[in-house]
């Protein structure tokens, strides 16, 4: 499986980034400092989540 590091994580090998991997018809996400823990989703659901986050629909969750 090939994990891809987020472009927002900076450069180098620091353990402070989100990584994605495509497996068959699913997307796996993990935090690089805890690689054994991964979430699995579909491309459509990930797209919906990203759009909602960009639109600010999840901002209230941090309060």
Please characterize this protein's 3D structure:
The model has no long low-confidence stretch (mean pLDDT 88). The protein has one domain (4-62). A hairpin with a 6-residue loop joins strand 3 (26-31) and strand 4. A four-stranded antiparallel β-sheet has the order 1-2-3-4. By secondary structure, the protein is of the alpha+beta class. The radius of gyration is 13 Å and the shape is globular. It has one helix at residues 43-55, and strands at 4-5, 18-23, 26-31, 38-41. Helix content is 21%, strand content 29%.
**Alpha plus pi helix count:** 1
Mean pLDDT: 88
Alpha-beta classification = alpha+beta
Residue share in helices? 10-25%
- Give the strand line-up of the largest sheet: 1-2-3-4
Distance between the termini: 36 Å
| pLDDT < 50 runs, ≥5 residues | none
What is the beta-strand fraction? 25-35%
Rounded to an integer in angstroms, the radius of gyration calculated over CA atoms is: 13 Å
Q: Output the helix-strand order.
A: EEEEH
Number of strands: 4
What structural keywords apply?
1 helix, alpha+beta, 4-stranded antiparallel β-sheet, 63 residues, single chain
């Amino acid at each position: 499986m090939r994990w891809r590091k987020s472009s927002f994580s900076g450069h180098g090998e620091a353990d402070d980034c989100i990584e994605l991997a495509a497996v068959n018809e699913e997307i796996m996400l993990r935090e690089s400092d805890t690689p054994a823990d991964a979430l699995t989703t579909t491309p459509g659901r990930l797209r919906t989540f990203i759009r909602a986050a960009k639109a600010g629909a999840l901002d209230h969750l941090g309060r």
